[in-house]
Amino acid sequence: MKEKKVNSACETCPEYSANGLKKLGVNIENTDYVVALAGNPNTGKSTVFNALTGLRQHTGNWPGKTVIRAEGAFEYNSKKFKLVDLPGTYSLLSTSQDEEIARNFILFGKPDVTVIVVDASRLDRNLNLVLQILEITDKAVLCLNLMDEAERNNIEIDERTLARDLGIPVVPTSARFNKGIPELIRTVNEVAHGIIFCDPHRIKNVPDNINKAVKKLSAELKKQFPGIPNSRWIAFRLLEGDKRIIEALESGELV
Amino acid sequence: MAKKPIKNIIKLSNDLRWQIGDDFHDNLAEGIYADAAELVSNSVQTDSGKKRFRLDSKIDKIITSKTWGFPLMFLILGVVLWLTIIGANYPSGMLAQLLLDTIHPLLKSGASSIGMPWWLDGFLIDGVYLAVAWVIAVMLPPMAIFFPLFTLLEDFGYLPRVAFNLDALFKKAGAHGKQALTMSMGFGCNAAGVVATRIIDSPRERLIAIITNNFSLCNGRWPTQILIATIFIGAVVPSSVSGLASVGAVIGIAILGMVFMFFSSWALSKTVLKGEVSTFNLELPPYRPPRFWKTLYTSLIDRTLIVLWRAIVFAAPAGAVIWLISNIMIGDHSIAYWMINGLDGFGWLLGLNGVILVAYIVAIPANEIVIPTILMLTVLVTGIAGGEGAGVMFELDSVTATGDILRAGGWTLLTAVNLMLFSLLHNPCSTTIYTIYKETKSAKWTTLASIAPVIMGFVVTFLVAQIWRLFG
């Protein structure tokens, strides 16, 4: 991997954007932050991963291509970020192995930032997963990828409204053409450092009886596990009877 | 770690589950969709629903149609193979000239000028170097053409359409429709195909996909098929159509592999792996114009060179083994001679010969070196002029020369057909076997996946040989 020498003070400045980036490839030791890449299948997660790490994780235009967790790293403003490319999933509510890999990493791996890559031209379908991830984690960035395709299909997205509604930063990109990647890195960096504060959307349209049950259960969880970050989502899972979550509560993995 | 007392939480959640009723999952899912719809209506504007994806759905209508889906699929596969076969000829010849005609004699004379003992010179240069050089000359050009073409199709978005076309067939076989995707990956490399089965949720259907992935002709076997088809199948028809006939034969073998995949999936799902077929949604992604040069570059660097490197790593020790078994004598003859003689009878029954069986034993680590091994051993036992002596894998820069040697070794059209069949139906390579074990964590299924194809290969070649001889 090519490493650039620092020639001037400019290169240490955050505004130096893309060039403040050092692609570290598979060198994932001693990283300061862990960043997860999640999203629906075939939205370009691996392409974003490659653009950030300089690796050449195999990409292809079909859903389900990434089945194992790929890891790589990059350095930005002398902080090292480990990047984990998760298998693409439509949801986190079922039990296939790829969904569990993704779910478990976001839940137990406790990434510092989760970048949710979505297909801008199919936002409606992609939001299902986004909303589920936002129940689990607070620190997230929405990467509105495939903007070129959305534009070609005359789809306009008001990013600011979307960011306000979701309560997380939204960055439009076309990772295949390296567009928006510097902005994405900057945003990830700011979320990791707490410069940007996320106040994520929580699912609202839940029937009353479920809402009551969840509130009760989540209050009990909070009492027993003070400081648990995603009690509401865990309550959802417990109501579903998710054995892995019960196990994790018993072993103390979650707190 | 100490277990936390969470009995009360479990009890509470059980009680609450009773209160909220069965449709909790659906209600929650509906709630999420309602939220998503609100968010979208606030921030997304589409110009008009009509224009979206019009071209995409037009293309889809044709390539996933009942009438055109399959013919187009075979046509595309045919064109890819034809380009590979025709295109690989010239660079293969050039590489053979360089590595085998030029560098090999140089190395030999260099070794004799520094007084290297004959056995070391033979072991290193005639054994290891020639095996490696052969693999490069034979494998690099077809892979360098096949992989980029395949990757371009993949980037374009064709693979999910193949899955869509094959879905009904897989369902009939009691298997998961996504197996079509893992099967396609298997056409590149079976080990990769086995790992890709992780996209299949149901353990039962995933096992079926793992066990039957070996019936996808992998890139280690494409060159064998292509070479044998060119020499024998191409030779029995007028030369003007020999290219087409060879391509047809290779496609035939690939399709036969798919037939075996469906058949054994069906057999498994009716016997040891009984169960319901699960339904799933397959999203047909939009077509994306591939980024041509980038795809070309990455498929050359990542796929071609990695596979080539793997072949070289296995070919080098195999070359050494070949040289050793043909130079170490037991009594009057070499080990190779005894092995070939011992297996000749069994080989004859299968319409093959001892040479081919020995070559497959030597080449268990890597299917790629079967053909060079067969050639070298054929020369050894027939003692015809052409080779350079015991254990030397020699160059065959023209396909005719290869054909001459094989015919001198007693090969017929039957041998060729059965070799193609056996190359399709035999145990997976050692990497794939190891991968199957890692994915299934079961010695039982790994053994079944490894042994069953060989048995099928024996049965099929045996039957073909008997019928052929009966009518031939």
Task: Summarize the model shown.
Chain A has 255 residues and is an alpha/beta fold. Chain A is built from nine helices and eight strands. Chain A has helices spanning 45-53, 97-108, 123-136, 147-152, 159-166, 181-192, 208-224, 231-240, 243-251, and strands at residues 21-25, 33-39, 70-76, 79-85, 113-119, 140-145, 155-157, 170-172.
Descriptive report:
The complex is a heterodimer of chains A (255) and B (472). With 255 residues, chain A is of the alpha/beta class. In chain A, 38% of the residues lie in helices and 18% in strands. Chain A has helices spanning 45-53, 97-108, 123-136, 147-152, 159-166, 181-192, 208-224, 231-240, 243-251; strands spanning 21-25, 33-39, 70-76, 79-85, 113-119, 140-145, 155-157, 170-172. Chain A has a seven-stranded mixed β-sheet with strand order 1-3-4-2-5-6-8, with helices on both faces. In chain A, strand 5, helix 3 and strand 6 form a beta-alpha-beta unit. In chain A, helix 7 packs across helix 8. Chain A is globular, with a radius of gyration of 18 Å. Chain A starts with 20 loop residues before the first strand and ends with a helix. Chain B is mainly alpha-helical and 472 residues long. Helix content of chain B is 74%, strand content 1%. Chain B contains 19 helices and three strands. Chain B has helices at residues 7-20, 24-43, 54-63, 69-113, 118-156, 159-172, 179-188, 190-196, 203-212, 222-236, 242-270, 292-327, 335-349, 354-362, 370-382, 399-408, 413-424, 430-440, 443-471; strands at residues 44-46, 329-330, 333-334. Chain B has a two-stranded antiparallel sheet with strand order 2-3. In chain B, 46% of the residues are buried. Classes of the chains: A alpha/beta (255), B mainly alpha (472). The interface between A and B is large, with 67 and 69 residues. Strand 7 of chain A pairs antiparallel with strand 1 of chain B, so a sheet runs across the interface.
